[in-house]
Amino acid sequence: MKTVILAGGLGTRLSEETILRPKPMVEIGGLPILCHIMNIYASHGYSEFIVALGYKGDFVKDYFINFYAVNNDLSIDLKTGKVTVHHGRQPGWTVHLVDTGVATDTGGRINRTKPWVGDETFMLTYGDAVGNIDVRALTAFHKSHGKLATVTAVRPPARFGGMAFDGDRVSEFIEKPSTGEGWINGGFFVLEPGIFDYLGSDHLIWEREPLERLARDG
Known about the structure:
Radius of gyration: 21 Å
CATH topology: Spore Coat Polysaccharide Biosynthesis Protein SpsA, Chain A
Strand content: 25-35%
Shape: globular
Low-confidence stretches: none
Helix content: 25-40%
Number of helices: 8
Number of domains: 1
CATH superfamily: Spore Coat Polysaccharide Biosynthesis Protein SpsA, Chain A
Strand order of the largest sheet: 7-4-1-8-12-9
Mean pLDDT: 91
Structural class: alpha/beta
Largest sheet: 6 strands, mixed
Number of strands: 12
């Protein structure tokens, strides 16, 4: 099963880093966020990725073209120009790097990956979606329900702490709980190719009309 990773946004909330590189290529522990995401899926046996590029997409292409040189030791014969790569990191991944346009919205990016997805069930996530997710359990849940789309749901972090009163006296300050009320999109999807019927325009935002229509249609 293939995994589509949306990696074309401007990353404005991390602008101090994304002036130079796309957000998925910001490093955590010496490794781009994008590679951490791929490791999540690969650890569950899913190792074919379709990366939907946009803003600074060439940065991502350059990284993967030079993946072995960047992540391994090299011996270089300066006389002949021969380069020997001493393999230290050899992930068995297949990575398709697909230009989906700089100004395209999330729904449009997904739609542009249709030729790469084909007529198979596929997974979808965002280029900053790092989490503790059991991908195999997610795909099994999806298959058991027979729906077009499955999405992970998480509790949002609480925004504020609280206070307790005894009359008009503050008796206790209460730390904000680790989770708030309700559920939000956790960013990991399993989808059937039928979802492309809900897409079309480059300017569709996946999280709005397409998901809202899918929810209404059950």
